[in-house]
């Protein structure tokens, strides 16, 4: 009876790209999260930008039809020094969003800094640091860690959305990250449960290691 009352989600996380598109499926129930699958779609063998975008669109439609996610979480607000690169990434973002909308899937957008802040507590973390934290949070065996960080980036986007679904930060407009929220509320890792405790505990450990 209790399980029926727990809110469940299947999040499709997407790290848009023109050559490699990271994707991840994350099942969540309350404060628990479990990986369904994750990886990176390689479209480099297709000739031309639009042919690659078409393959990404069809791939996402097929994935949505097969796995029935409840929502899409996608990285947006990409900024690059090269305008042409930025335009191509925006095209990839649009294709992923269009595929989701074609299946009536709700879309949630997160900036790269927002994702990094949610996972590591540092909005300027690199991809490998995000992957390392996700491995700890989700207990991913070393042999199952993908070689391409596009896959862990997508998983990070999905996990970021998972945290936003359950964290009381959503109800505190002045707190933009867990560190700020915790300080404001006087919370410690011992006063929190589920992913909240894991996030703060991991952040505390990382600070100790730096010292």
Can you offer a commentary on this structure?
This protein has 211 residues and is of the alpha/beta class. It folds into two domains: 2-166, Ribonuclease H-like superfamily/Ribonuclease H (Nucleotidyltransferase, domain 5, 2-Layer Sandwich), CATH 3.30.420; 168-211, no CATH class. It is built from eight helices and five strands, in the order H-E-E-E-H-E-H-E-H-H-H-H-H. The chain has helices spanning 2-5, 49-67, 83-101, 112-120, 127-138, 149-166, 178-185, 194-210; strands spanning 8-15, 20-29, 32-42, 71-75, 107-110. The protein has a five-stranded mixed beta sheet with strand order 3-2-1-4-5, with helices on both faces. Helix 3 (83-101) links the parallel strand 4 and strand 5 (107-110). Helix 4 packs across helix 6 and helix 5 (127-138) crosses helix 6 (149-166). It is globular. The relative contact order is 0.16. Mean pLDDT is 83; it is low at 168-196.
Describe the structure in brief.
The protein has 211 residues and is an alpha/beta fold.
Shape: globular
Q: Please state roughly what percent of the residues sit in beta strands, choosing from under 5%, 5-15%, 15-25%, 25-35%, 35-45% or over 45%.
A: 15-25%
Please provide the count of β strands. Answer: 5
Summed up, the helix count is 8
